[in-house]
Amino acid sequence: MSDRLDPTLALASGPPEESRRVPTVLAGLALLFMAVFLFGVFPFNHPSVLVAAIGLLASAAVLADRPSGDAMSGSRLGKSLVFGGLALGLLALLGLWRIVPDWILLTVSTGAVCAGTIILARARYGSGPAGIRNHGVYNTPMLRRGGAAWIAAVVLTGFYVLLYWFPQSLEGLIRTMDPVSYTIRGAAADQWFMYGTLYSLAVLVMGIRALYRYRHDRYQRWRTVSVILAQGVLAYLIPQILVAFNEPEFYFSYFWPLKPEYLWPGDFGNGWIWDHPGRLGRFMVIWGAVMAFVAVPILTYFFGKRWYCSWVCGCGCLAETAGDPYRHLADSSVRSWQIERWMIHGVLVLVTIGTVVLWVNSAMEGGLLGSFSGGFARVYGFVFGSVWAGVIGVGFYPLMGARVWCRFGCPQAAILGLIQRFFSRFRITTNGGQCISCGNCTTYCEMGIDVRWYAQRGQNIVRASCVGCGMCASVCPRGVLKLENSKQEGRFNGPVLITSDEVDVMAEDWAASVSWK
């Protein structure tokens, strides 16, 4: 049997190892909440400390609750570093940054967590024969919506709530970022610099994990390197360096409609970015327009939406690295597909209409919307930028998979998908005669596509939602699937194999055969 065949299909390979670990963590959390809400015990009466404490306990449950035989369970050094770094981060929130120099806290805490995570990844994926091994996925509560997954979702959601609406609660963590902030942009850190730093570190560290895991797959290796560089350079270093030179903070990997304000008249179109001294501001506006209306159609025609969603986009960078362990949680039902199409295209229509209305209002000097023009931008930013893309999009990783925002809310994915579906050369071809219906492809499709259904019929996969991550081809033990860029002719090939729906046995023929036997 090929080592690429998913061993999790044999669910009887080992009993779930929840034992007493997750219930113990849940009991500890219950006591913690009682102490907070009933007695107001210091220091857990502070919301940031409460979230940090829950995060530490959840991390302990995640790393401790591993199935037997998992290499990760034997890396004591890695787990010790991760726990130590998280504990130091908790102490920083408690106010340790007032006593210990912030650069020491930053270096030791983040360094320990990053090093520990890499050691754990190497212990599990760096040894043994090359190949994707998903041992214990359905036996690990963190990866199958168990108690640890729910705790992690609460922690992530709570972090985003504090980040967007109560940043003062994260002051201790923000202050630990001051040394890096002064070095890169010459100013003290704020909550967004802290978030961008942690975000980029997560992509880097979990990207290294992905390089270990997919070291046998050339496509996955190059794709992982691309997302690491795209996030670290385009979405982190360059914007912060621009701030150091008193230039607008601009993210070159985002553009309309994912970043609609880049073409809205308030700040960019005819606002202060365009009128910024020098030519860089105007270049930014022109860059965003050219990428949105010229580069997107051309690149998507040749390569499909994968050139952006799986190689460049910041949301995809996090989903393909930190969200990789949760890709199997995506719902692949027809109902989910129907909801996805209505929601994601509805957001695209809303952004498009909003952009047109705002420009018409600007041309009429506010005569159409009046003061509501600013309110529309704020409401859109709150609902889609904060709640949907942040709180739900990342906070629900452990429950709904890593592509919640990409599937149900991203307008950029919607417009790329429409071009890919009707005007692109990209497709995933299938060799249905080799398919053994193992279901690996459908299980590990992060976009919830029922890939097996197409493979069984020998039908090309031309779906608007496909981000071209190539994971379906990577986990296939028979080489049935292949990502291709070819001529548009023959993309929609229809079913090649005979299916049960196309077989009609006459009742009298069946009766005659039975009587003959």
Question: Would you mind describing this structure in some detail?
Answer:
It is a single chain. 59% of the residues lie in helices and 2% in strands. The chain has 517 residues and is an all-alpha fold. Helix 8 (191-213) runs antiparallel to helix 9 (218-244) and helix 8 packs across helix 13 (314-321). Mean pLDDT is 79; it is low at 1-19 and 65-74.
Helices and strands in order, then pairings?
Layout: H1 21-39, H2 47-64, H3 76-94, H4 102-125, H5 147-165, H6 171-175, H7 178-185, H8 191-213, H9 218-244, H10 265-269, H11 280-303, H12 306-309, H13 314-321, H14 334-363, H15 372-395, H16 397-400, H17 404-408, H18 411-423, E1 426-430, H19 440-443, H20 451-457, H21 471-475, E2 481-485, H22 507-516
Antiparallel strand pairs: 1-2
Helix pairs in contact: 1-2, 2-3, 2-5, 3-4, 4-8, 5-15, 8-9, 8-13, 9-13, 11-18, 14-18
In short:
This protein has 517 residues and is an all-alpha fold. 59% of the residues lie in helices and 2% in strands.
Features of this protein?
single chain; 517 residues; mainly alpha; two-stranded antiparallel sheet; 59% helix; disordered N terminus
How many E-type strands?
2
Please report which band the strand proportion falls in: under 5%, 5-15%, 15-25%, 25-35%, 35-45% or over 45%: under 5%
Give me the Rg, rounded.
25 Å
Class by SSE composition: mainly alpha
Write down the oligomeric state.
single chain
Query: What would you call the shape?
Result: globular
Uncertain spans, ≥5 residues at pLDDT below 50?
A: 1-19, 65-74
Helix content percent band: 55-70%
Helix run count: 22
Q: H/E series, N to C?
A: HHHHHHHHHHHHHHHHHHEHHHEH
Largest sheet: 2 strands, antiparallel
Strand order of the largest sheet: 1-2
Give the averaged pLDDT, no decimals: 79
End-to-end separation in angstroms reads 38 Å
